[in-house]
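Question (not urgent): is this output format expected?
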Amino acid sequence: MTQASSSAGSGRPAADTVLERFEQWARDTPGAPAVITPAGPLSYAGLDTAANRLAHHLRARGLPDGARIAIAPTRREETVVALLATLKAGAAYALVDPVDTRTARVQLTALAPGLLLTDAAGAARLDQGKGLPVLRTDTEAEAIAARPGHPPARAPRAAPAALLFTATAVPRPVPVGHALLLAAHEAWAQVARLTSEDRHLFTGGPDLTPFAAGWTRALCAGGALVLPDGPAWKPGEIPEAVSEYEVGALHTDPGGALRLLDRGLDPAGAARRGRREPAPRLAALRLLTVTGDRLYLDQQTALQDRLRPGARVLSVYAPAEAAGAGTWFELPQLPRLLDAPERICPLGTPFPGGSVELRAGELHLTPPGGGDALTTGDLAVLRPDGLLEFAGRLRDRITLADGSPLDPHPAESALRSHPGVGAAVLAPVGSRGNTRLVAYVAPPPDEPGREGGGARPDVEGLREHLAGRVPAAARPARLVHLRTLPRTRAGQEDRAAVPQPVAAGARPAGSGKYGAVAGGEVPGWFGFGCAAVPLAVVTLFATDLIWPGSTDLTGVPRPWSTLFFVLYLFECAAFAAGLLFLFAGRRRMVRPGPGRRLTTAAHLAAAYLLLAWWPQDNLYRLAAKHDWPRQAALVYTFNVPLMIAGLIVAVHLTRRPAAPPADSDR
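Got this back:
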């Protein structure tokens, strides 16, 4: 099966590029705002001049044509200047995450750039012994400003224009040529009906495909980019920014889009339960595009209701290999209303100039402008109405205990048809041959009682709900409630970050509507405390058996002897708590975001922070003041590891989670 759309680029001059489109707007409308930030606007002429100066500076460094330039300044406005300058200098740009150092280092390793273009703060984070050539825009600002403000001589365009990173767990750079970048822009211009009046706001990071390829929607159509002061917008800032800067086109991921359903955006409308009305702070929006992951039909309908009449909501399938132009869907494409919209994820039709083909159910995509078909790894079906529908991902396929494969998407969609479930993923738990399915569910984002009372589904209720809808093997054995599903930076549901369910038969760690795991609980802190008291007493009596004389206070006057005795009690209590935490604390620490290795390291580090005081202090008291070998051994056995353990715990605690964790679901 092949589905295609008519070309969007007929009559295009052979030498045309997105850079030339931008430069034409800079000549035609030099005073129009190209970039808008909280600090003020930057005109097309000002942006073009700044990019020309930096391009001359890049050419002066002797970079070969087609060189890869990694761009990672901490201010988004500088990112736009840098990518335009890179194109003007005849190089290929790659936008690198300026915030997440670990992700940025992975990107830089995969990219192997000829130059890292950043500021001093970015260089300190990213160039740690890698030996990368670095251009610091802030420290070389005077030299850049002294360069000519006219464009440099044109370089050959045979090399790629950009390298876009995939949204996979390990980002991979995908070369994108000048022709594809322009064809993708023209396809977007036709689908989104871009105008020079549009102001565009991208909620994701600059390294993600929606912005890394989508900046053309603004700057190649005469519109403006609305940018944050720093590298990315905070979720709470977006509605206010849309209102303040009169944003007409908002480009976001499903997580960001569903936050727009929060009734807090319209406090007056929140009182009218059951009614969805346009949110006043979103009144300027004429276009909302959602990319990055599956968006169900009922969610798209709810988003449509939050916008003013006539505004459009586009669900876009936008892989990096297609420069962000894969397939698109909006509600008017449907010939009629559909039953069970909560189970349907429409992909719609290909962008103009592109085509799709289904091979054994897998979606193969030819991007706008033609070329070889891309293997996507995603499953789809062609509906009777001629629209494509998402059917899952090959990488999410689960191997059951009997060795048979299971695509979780149909069961997850069926779970969403339960009135208390807004989002769901299925994940396998257990060793091979003993695999059980766990359902992770979150409430609908606009449910009035999501933080308080209300119907909360249990595992038996969900299994009964799925009966007759999915095979018995696809029904979950366990259930975990979350406030929201964890998502990656690219907006995809992060199946690797869901918390592990705790062992059956344990006591719940907490309460609340979304605060416990059906069929599995963990001991509460009261239970830990009761177990720690007798263990601390045993430890106190064991002290003199292991280190005779270490607690002897005979020669210490009062009140100091009493204070030291209390210190010994604290040491014993800390040792007892550390021992219990070592064996029972791991399952309390699992939360979306840090990853299992970091969580394990933090668990052991926290246990060591508690355990070490008892042996350390006793050994110190028995060591001679000038016994330097023993003093050095104690320092490197206890003091240095304690510092390292504290640092590991600090990293774990400050690691930004992919999504808000459940109250007590693990």
